[in-house]
């Protein structure tokens, strides 16, 4: 082999080596917790896991879970009216009892509802719009998390306090709806706090003030306090959601879509969904 050939081979392989090093470096810093219940580099996780962070959530200005999770591979959220939805994680779109018992919805690794008390609209009570990131495990997760994680699980991670004060408020207004998304994060003497708020109201184009139909309103909040004392770290969270939703029914009839005037009629004015949830946990970590 001539010296020229050896020289050309060296020039060819050096760029490939540098490219692989840069590609690996970009992935090493991404940490996930849902797959093994511990902070793990995503390159070392054997399961099928993907995540979406708060920067991307804020960039797309998401107002419901489907706009967030449908950006992930093998995940599809079929969004209905208001907060109604059906979930698919590497599976068919399941409804009824199959949908309620096949997917596990978590917040910092803690189920939103106890096994056996599932909800086909399980993300209705999540704080996914104001969380730090959301991780999805595609495929069975019952070995680590127990019942309901048959086809997969969705874990919303709460944000940790920032080292410097950050105050952000985002608003969106129109003649039919408004959205307020605010957050505060900052340090304390031995830790830090986070306070996030999400408030959305949507009256729809056919809203009737006399009977308050239809109407959609939801509020979500998150409070997190981190503190360190000696060898112990303490984490306290308090989250809550409130939903007030009056829903329109379906108009029925042969070629009813040709009648534009009937689009403003609500044949099912008594339909509604009112629910609220409050959850909290206190964690002690000994270093």
Indicate the topology.
Layout lengths: L2 H26 L2 E2 L7 E2 L7 E5 H6 L5 H5 L5 E5 L5 E5 L6 H7 E5 L2 E2 L21 E6 L3 H4 L6 E6 L8 E8 L3 E11 L3 E12 L12 E15 L2 E15 L25 E15 L1
Parallel strand pairs: 6-9
Antiparallel strand pairs: 1-2, 3-8, 4-5, 6-7, 8-9, 10-11, 11-12, 12-13, 13-14, 14-15
Description:
It is built from five helices and 15 strands. It is α+β, with helices and mostly antiparallel strands and 287 residues long. It has two domains: 31-157, TonB-dependent receptor, plug domain (Ferric Hydroxamate Uptake Protein, Chain A, domain 1); 166-286. The strands form four sheets. The chain has a six-stranded antiparallel sheet, with no helix packed on it. Strands 3-8-9-6-7 form a five-stranded mixed sheet. A two-stranded antiparallel ribbon has the order 1-2. Strand 4 (75-79) and strand 5 (85-89) form a beta hairpin. The protein is globular, with a radius of gyration of 23 Å. Mean pLDDT is 80; it is low at 15-28.
Annotated CATH topology of the largest domain: Ferric Hydroxamate Uptake Protein, Chain A, domain 1
Globally, the shape reads globular
Terminal CA distance reads 59 Å
Strand order of the largest sheet: 10-11-12-13-14-15
Largest sheet at a glance? Answer: 6 strands, antiparallel
């Amino acid at each position: 082999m001539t010296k020229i050939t050896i020289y050309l081979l060296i020039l060819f392989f050096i760029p490939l080596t540098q490219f692989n090093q840069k590609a690996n470096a970009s992935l090493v810093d991404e940490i996930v917790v849902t797959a093994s219940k511990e902070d793990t580099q995503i390159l070392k996780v054997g399961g099928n896991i993907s995540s979406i962070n708060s920067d991307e959530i804020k960039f797309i200005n998401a107002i419901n879970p489907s706009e967030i999770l449908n950006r992930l591979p093998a995940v599809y959220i079929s969004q209905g009216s208001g907060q109604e939805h059906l979930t698919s994680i590497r599976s068919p779109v399941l409804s009824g009892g199959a949908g309620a018992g096949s997917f596990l919805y978590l917040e910092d690794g803690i189920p939103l509802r106890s096994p056996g008390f599932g909800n086909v609209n399980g993300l209705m009570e999540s704080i996914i719009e104001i969380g730090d990131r959301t991780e999805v495990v595609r495929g069975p997760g019952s070995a680590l998390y127990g019942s309901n994680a048959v086809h997969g699980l969705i874990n919303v991670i709460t944000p940790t306090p920032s080292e410097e004060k950050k105050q952000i408020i985002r608003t969106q207004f129109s003649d039919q709806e408004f959205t307020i998304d605010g957050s505060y994060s900052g340090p304390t003497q031995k830790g830090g706090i986070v306070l996030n708020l999400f408030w959305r109201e949507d009256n729809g184009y056919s809203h009737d003030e006399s009977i308050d139909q239809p109407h959609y309103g939801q509020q979500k909040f998150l409070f997190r306090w981190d503190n360190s004392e000696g060898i112990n770290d303490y984490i306290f969270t308090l989250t809550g959601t409130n939903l007030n939703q009056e829903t329109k029914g379906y108009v029925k009839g042969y070629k009813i879509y040709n009648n534009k005037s009937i689009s403003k009629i609500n044949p099912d004015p008594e339909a509604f969904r009112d629910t609220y949830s409050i959850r909290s946990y206190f964690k002690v970590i000994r270093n």
